[in-house]
Amino acid sequence: MERIIPSVIITAAQELIAMYGNNLKYMGQYNKMDVYKFQFPDNTETGFPVLYLYDNSNDEILEISGFESFRILNEVKSTN
């Protein structure tokens, strides 16, 4: 069963979605927040991942990139 992406995440990623399509993927949880990763097409996957951390208890979104995004992904993968 595929997870439904919250509309607030889609809105936050709108610029990337307009350029590359709706390629958001649920990755798991980090510090009680849902982690969504924007999946760039294979031929454009360079640089840092773009993550959206979503706290559904207050509709808060954090957009993360840079080295911190790798650390978060490693922690999410180690808990799944």
Q: What's the quick description here?
A:
This protein is 32% helix and 30% strand.
Oligomer: single chain
Physical arrangement of strands within the biggest beta sheet: 1-2-3-4
Low-confidence stretches: none
What is the overall shape?
globular
Please state roughly what percent of the residues sit in beta strands, choosing from under 5%, 5-15%, 15-25%, 25-35%, 35-45% or over 45%.
25-35%
Largest sheet: 4 strands, antiparallel
Radius of gyration: 12 Å
Which structural class best describes the helix and strand composition?
A: alpha+beta
Mean pLDDT: 89
Report the span from N to C terminus: 16 Å
SSE order in H/E notation? HHEEEEH
Number of strands: 4
What's the total helix number? 3
The figure for the number of domains is 1
Give the % helix. 25-40%
Structure, described:
The chain is of the alpha+beta class and 80 residues long. It has one domain. Helices cover 32% and strands 30% of the residues. Strands 1-2-3-4 form a four-stranded antiparallel β-sheet. A hairpin with a 2-residue loop joins strand 1 (24-30) and strand 2 (33-38).
How is this fold's topology laid out?
Elements: H1 7-12, H2 14-20, E1 24-30, E2 33-38, E3 50-55, E4 60-64, H3 67-79
Antiparallel strand pairs: 1-2, 2-3, 3-4
